[in-house]
Amino acid sequence: MNLFRVRGIQLAVHFSFFLLLAVNAFDGWADGGWPGLWWNSALLLSFFGCVVLHELGHCFTAMHYGITVPRILLLPIGGMAEFDGIPREPRRELLITIAGPGVNFVLAGLLWLVLPAELSPAVETSAADVPTLLETAGLLMQWNVAMGLFNLLPAVPMDGGRILRALLATRLSYLRATFWAVTTGKILCVAGAAIALFYQPLLAALFTFIFVVGEMEYRAARRRELEDAHFRAVLARLHAASVATPTEEPPLLVG
Ligand SMILES: [Zn+2]
Asked: How many Cβ atoms are within 10 Å of 167's Cβ, its own excluded?
């Protein structure tokens, strides 16, 4: 479902997002009646507000480099910005990628500056009750730090994986760099999923998802590389043919 546009970028939500919103609202209602329902919903929406700001960090940096960003899609597991093309230039990819977690750390820093220092321990103790506005801001600060750090996990398609790829691409070919960044991510995902299975099955599912998307991204990069090689070969053949054909000027007749 399309919501609104920011600088030409369409913000859209997947229908499963509403399912999450409903389950979360019901949880709040079961815990604390109507106030619980409203607070739970407000918390979730502000959390996803930070997700949107994270994505906008990527998008605005990409737009600075002339990349078109048609859409940001919100899913229950987070946000996804759709770019018309990811630059093959490592420096640009690095900056576009860092901008997302960078927004989270800036938000956390700003909240840290404005919040009173004694707030942090109180956030833990009053979790059962409906939180106050200040406590909500404290939670948002913690979430932004967690979101920034989790996204820096070096596993493609997470931001950390793309940063690793961009760094490797300064030394290796783009495809090799993608291969090693994806492989690193897969190893982390297998280890993470194995550990998370005992504590947090949802997290294990997320690691599995990252593993699969990482593999898809590597395959897409390999396919593009093959297409590019084919295109270059065709161009080379055409060039060779054009060199071999005689010029179109009429031959000079000497007689
Ligand atoms: Zn990101």
From this structure: 16
- For ligand 1, the distance from its centroid to the CA atom of residue 139, given in whole angstroms, is 20
Ligand 1 centroid – CA 239 distance (Å): 42
Lookup result for tokens 């931001």: 159
Give the predicted TM-score (pTM) of the model.
0.79
Per-residue pLDDT of the chain (255 residues; tens, 9 = 90+): 888 888 888 898 888 888 888 888 888 888 877 888 888 888 888 888 999 999 999 999 999 998 889 999 988 888 888 888 777 788 898 999 999 999 999 999 999 988 876 655 544 544 456 667 788 888 899 999 999 999 999 998 899 999 999 999 999 998 999 999 999 999 999 999 999 999 888 889 989 999 999 999 999 989 988 888 888 888 888 887 776 655 555 555 555
Q: Which candidate in 55, 93, 135, 217 is catalytic?
A: 55
- 93 catalytic per annotation: no
Distance of CA 187 to the CA centre of its chain: 20
Neighbouring residues of the ion ligand 1, judged by CB less than 5 Å: 100, 151, 159
Question: Parallel, antiparallel, or unpaired for β 71-75 and 78-82?
Answer: antiparallel
Query: Which 3 state secondary structure label does DSSP give 148?
Result: helix
Q: How much distance in Å is there from the Cα of 176 to the middle of ligand 1?
A: 22
